[in-house]
Amino acid sequence: MSIGTLLIRADASVSIGTGHVMRCLALAQTWQDSGGQVVFASAEITDALRKRLADERCGVVEISAPVGTSHDVEQTVAAARERKCDWLVVDGYTFGAQYQQKLKAAGLKVLFVDDYGHAPRYFADLILNQNVTAASDLYAERETQTKLLLGTKYCLLRGEFTRWRNWQREIAPVCRQVLVLMGGSDPGNITARVIEALAAKVFEELEITVVVGGSNPNFAMLEKLAPGNITLKRNVTGMAELMAAADLVVSAAGITCWELCFMGLPALLIDVAENQSPLARELDRRGCAIHVEGAEVSADKIAGEVIRLAGSSELRRSLSQRSRELVDGRGAERIVSVLRGAPTIRLRRVKADDARLLWEWANDPEVRASSFSSAPIQWETHAEWFAERSNCKKSLFLIAEDTEGCAVGQIRFDLNGCDAELNVSVAKEKRGLGIGTPLVEGAVSEIWANTPCMRVHAFVKPENTSSARTFERAGFIRAGVEQVRGNTAVHFVRIRT
Known about the structure:
The chain is built from 18 helices and 20 strands. The chain has helices at 19-33, 47-55, 70-82, 97-105, 159-162, 190-198, 219-225, 239-245, 256-263, 277-285, 299-310, 313-324, 331-339, 355-362, 365-370, 379-390, 436-450, 465-473, and strands spanning 5-10, 37-42, 59-62, 85-91, 110-113, 126-129, 147-150, 177-181, 207-212, 230-234, 248-252, 267-271, 290-294, 346-349, 395-401, 407-416, 419-426, 455-460, 477-484, 487-495. Strands 3-2-1-4-5-6-7 form a seven-stranded parallel β-sheet, with helices on both faces. Strand 17 (419-426), helix 17 (436-450) and strand 18 form a beta-alpha-beta unit. The protein starts with a strand and ends with a strand.
């Protein structure tokens, strides 16, 4: 399927912050990886971000109207039409119901990025809320065609993070490295208060790195505040490496939370804006981070919590493990798949008259080549096996159908207590259409809902790269290499959260 241009309407400034543009950059990178082009339309954007977008091969078009006005809509529609855009992505709290309605009236396909249901009604084709607090109730007032993409499975992570997907954090018994991240612009200059907290003598043995965003106007003043053990870095691009090296972080509770969760970095979160509070509180409640109140938090409070976290490797280990379970790094891929029209499938239990179709699928040469037993299967053997499996209480056997009711694939789980082993195949004529990932994701949701299974396992021959990509996109992680019936196999596992 060919892919065209994606237009992203988002702004960034000292007062707004840089989060809207930076998370959309993750979507832009994945769209580009699929062969498309990306243009950002902005009424406000900092010089640092303008340069970053240029470095990322993204175009920037200026919106010369007040944000969210009818003139803003007119210019955005004109930019989309001029570039014959496939989709328009809108991210910002100023864009409300009328803005969406006018975009739809202009005939555009719209993805609306939202965090807390701020619009009175929603007209976009898709609403994306990547937060752990996302719920359909926030969008009860929406058009019938509006679909929801909710939860951390859709977290937008830039390529610099997703390359660390198979990395495992080791929790040091003694804390040495502390990272401070208070956002791209930090309009309240909370960074100064954190530096004040960490300048205490008790922290002089720690190596502390403070990242100051390229849109932060207070860099010179912060340099004067920082003692010798605190290093300031400005406009950093290698953020994943800094997170990997750190033992804990003091961070604003914005979109950086999802990067921290993905990297399993134990975090103290400060909600520097009112809309960050629900996220910070929920991550604290789930044991994924420690919430240290809001923007008025004292330096003494920050210092006390850093001492507590630095002094307990068990607490850091627990925070790391629980946060890592929330984000698998495949969010942008899932969203681009939806934007490109990935096929819709539904699942049903196998029926007696599926036996011959499954036999034909099983004997397809490509299926036999990827199997751990490559010999052709005789009908009598298959019929006996099918009768046993389709009635076995320790198996969940499903057929995937498209919207027209045609069978397009099969998936089977063999249960053993809290574990299940997965077997999946797609009909020959349906391969290459993006069916595999939604098939696996939907079936895993089915087994979570109907069994006590906590872990799903899959085994893939090393040369079967397409199946490996399917499992990774469906949230599985590599768990090593094993021998399966005399064959080398890559072990994939997905753990229920």
